[in-house]
Amino acid sequence: MGADGGSIPDRRDLVKTRGKAATADKAVSRERFFYCALSKKRLAKPVVADPLGKLYNKDAAIEYLLDKSAYGDGEQICPYINGVKDLLTLNAQPNPDEGEGKAPFVCWLSLKEMNGAVPFIALRHCGCVFADGALRAVLPNLAKIGETAEEPSQVACPNCTKTFDPTSSSAVLPIYPTQEVQDVLLTALFAARAVAKANKKRKNGKDKEKKEDKGERATKVAKLKNDRSASGSPAPAAANSSLTSSVRAQLAEQEKKRLAAQAGMSDAVKAMFHNGDTGKKGDVADFFGRTYNRYATS
Ligand SMILES: [Zn+2]
After folding, report:
1. pLDDT tens per residue, range 261-274
2. 155: which strand partners?
3. CA–CA distance from 224 to each of 145, 210, 237 (Å)?
């Protein structure tokens, strides 16, 4: 049969189609490392990566942030980027070989081309870009995405020497990772944003509370002032102070009496125990208020 227009595709046709599709996928995955995801122009410094590891020329990414409709498919490509803080400026080594079909960038360590053939990663703290395998050969404790951190430590970037903690799960950003890893990164991005939002809300809430407290106090003071002037009565503070002064006067009076009594008493005590002349003549009261003539005893 066949040649009647109604042929059923056999296994050979399916394999051929699948082969074609795979080739097309490969071409697309390769192109991503050559061209800006937004402008589709060849990647050239300065280049930025978004939180999912997609690559852009920095000017195109900024243009998109300023005008989300600047590129027709922008909202399909990177709807999750909100601002410049979502972009990591990459320090990628331009490919010294600018020949036909050559990738724009190479690994700082291995000089392998960043063309999709092997996985590439960027260090988040400095933006330096390496072939994943080459960097891990130098830094074996470099964390993998989604892995929990081991003992924190500090190592130097083998390219720019800036130190960072390689065990932090956010130490590296993979460039165009698998869809599975992209999903992990997107979840992490939204989680981080939720935390930041909650912290901001809590901080704002505290500030508002403080303001309300201050406002309440000011209202109370104003009310107090109003009450005082309305009633014409002395201000509580003034009443307090006059009360205090009358109490103080009473206390001072008592103290004066006490001191006087003490002085009298000490004189009497002195008189009782000293035979010498105290300079005072005449009768003095003794401890019990009795009077006696000191000269009578001597
Ligand atoms: Zn670096």
Report:
1. 555 544 444 444 44
2. 164
3. 63, 21, 11
Three-class DSSP category at 221: helix
pLDDT tens-digit map of 55-112: 999 999 999 999 999 998 888 999 999 999 999 999 999 999 988 899 999 999 999 9
Question: Is residue 249 very low, low, confident or very high in pLDDT (cuts 50, 70, 90)?
Answer: low
CA–CA separation, 160 and 127 (whole Å) = 10
What spacing in Å lies between the alpha carbon of 147 and ligand 1's midpoint?
A: 22
Q: Residue 272 and residue 265: Cα distance in Å, rounded? A: 10
CA dihedral over 124, 126, 129, 133, signed as positive or negative: negative
Ligand 1 centre distance from Cα of residue 140 (Å): 16
Unique residue bearing structure tokens 């042929």: 7
CA-to-CA distance for 224 and 217, rounded, in angstroms? 11
Residues 152-165 have pLDDT tens digits of 789 999 999 999 99
User: Could you tell me the distance, in angstroms and rounded to a whole number, from the CA of residue 95 to the centre of ligand 1?
Assistant: 17
